[in-house]
């Protein structure tokens, strides 16, 4: 038991560290190449925040643990909205004014519906993984097009510009990219091994492992980014981190088990967990896009989101 706990904690710590350094190096390298801050933020930074989920999903899929990989995607998206945004909103009201963000949220909802349609038959086939990957590449292409052609000022672009590292030597940026690429899969393996060992002792299923222990762990980079964003008064960037991460999780990360190890999907993931992802995504859209003139997430919203997270965890653990 102690070995499994140490593996989980070490894997989680190195995973968060390596994801942060990978994003730092990749975004600094992209800035040195002269790419627009909005483009860097919507692609490299957003993908980097989903790097823990990507490597955990790949590790679990290669070990034949598809339910852990799928549970990680669904659980991370639920945790991002209910736990991460809930905790962040407790620090103070989060205002939204970015036009880019308001275009991203409907995309996140559309991607969630697409994923639900593909897995509703209880299977995630190889061709469905290809469909998800194609949708992901299409979204990336649209982001790149928007960032390169839309010259209209956007508050999120200004916030991204402030966060992307400046004056980082290219050699140092490349060094951190390499460090991230080496440590991410290594730490993901430790985390999965530790979580699986703990779960087996308590008789938890592969799906529950992904939905709970691993999902919360891989969402920690989003928590750090959101809290930092709100403390710096970069509210749009804080919510943008969640929306971007959830969008990439449901397309790019969910595609991984379909591509590596296609097969059956646990019925609970379809009948319970997917609908929780859909419900929380719709709730976020309603709160952000229909919250009146101020368009804010308040502390009361934060409390409601946290209570939702606690209730969901209770249901998952008592139903296993």
TrEMBL record:
Gene3D superfamilies: NCX, central ion-binding region. It is a multi-pass membrane protein. The lineage of its organism: Bacteria, Pseudomonadati, Pseudomonadota, Gammaproteobacteria, Alteromonadales. It is found in: Membrane. Residues 5-144, 174-317 form the Sodium/calcium exchanger membrane region domain. The chain crosses the membrane at residues 69-93, 126-145, 173-192, 207-231, 243-262, 274-293, 300-317. Pfam families: Na_Ca_ex. This is Calcium/sodium antiporter. Keywords: Membrane, Transmembrane, Transmembrane helix. It comes from Shewanella subflava. InterPro entries: K/Na/Ca-exchanger, NaCa_Exmemb, NCX_ion-bd_dom_sf.
